[in-house]
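thought: user wants a sequence for this fold. calling inverse folding tool.
action: design(structure=
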């Protein structure tokens, strides 16, 4: 009989203190589904609330002249139910910096408990050619300021 490969350990749950950027959002009644908890389709909106203000921040943002940033991938782990009423805190950091993209690490917290975590890959594209463009050094420096604390 063949042995199954060992299971890889589950990564530790993030803590809000791991994230240099923290914003809150309101859980709306409209966010609920038939089961009475926040619908899984709403979680990406909470994550967007955490990352978009930093992307477009006038001083520390990630915009580059002649370019735009697009969301190429998002992975979400749903860990706990969220219920109305209340608020969530969204932690945001940079997990990876690549040639023409960067990856956000994010987590949603309610009352100190991690309810979900996500990784979102953002690609810098040239507005004219619509093709990926290498990250300029000044953008890399801004990204490095908010690297995930682990």
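)
observation: tool returned 150 residues.
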């Amino acid at each position: 009989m063949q042995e199954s490969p060992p299971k890889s350990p589950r990564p530790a749950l993030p803590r809000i203190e791991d994230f240099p950027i923290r914003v809150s959002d309101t859980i709306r009644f409209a966010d609920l589904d038939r089961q009475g908890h926040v619908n899984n389709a709403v979680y990406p909106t909470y994550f967007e609330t955490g990352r978009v203000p930093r992307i477009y921040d006038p001083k520390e943002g990630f915009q580059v002249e002649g370019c735009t940033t697009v969301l190429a991938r998002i992975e979400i782990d749903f860990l706990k139910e969220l219920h109305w009423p209340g608020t969530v805190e969204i932690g945001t950091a940079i997990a990876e910096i690549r040639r023409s993209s960067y990856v956000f690490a994010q987590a949603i917290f309610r009352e100190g408990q991690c309810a979900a975590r996500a990784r979102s890959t953002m690609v810098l594209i040239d507005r004219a050619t619509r093709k990926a463009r290498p990250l300029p050094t000044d953008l890399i420096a801004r990204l490095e300021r908010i690297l995930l604390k682990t």
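thought: summarizing for user.
answer: Here is the designed sequence. The helical segments are 43-55, 137-144.
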